[in-house]
Fold:
Amino acid sequence: MEPRTKEQISYNMKRIKGKDSQIELLLRKALWKRGLRYRKNVAKLTGKPAIVFGNKKVAVFCDGEFWHGYDWEKRKSDFKANRDFWIPKIERNMVRDIEVNAALEYDGWTVVRFWGKEILADVERCADIVEEALRRSAERSEKV
Structure:
């Protein structure tokens, strides 16, 4: 296989969605089918979660493996071109994810994160996890 040109790489990178990705749509559809209503991509919330249950304070993120550093220690060596750009960029994304989780949790939010491959493999299991987080959140608010 021949190496891709800069133009091909640029074209592919421009087509990557920041919201309404396949994994987000799959999870949202599963949640909607269960009667769970949410807001999407809430910009006012730290990290701009893909799915937000504001009244229950549950934020859901759907993380792509490439951008968020899945299996990073193994994958880091896959970068052949432009390593000085990509490795720090993805490592910064990983740190930002931790910072976002901490900030939201400090503000009383429950944070749920899924890898894209988890959603693709078993979206119903992921929806179960979100539903459980919503149930626990409701129980916590009843105790207050």
Strands lie at 39-40, 51-53, 58-63, 110-115. The mean pLDDT is 90. The longest strand covers residues 58-63. The chain has one domain: 17-143.
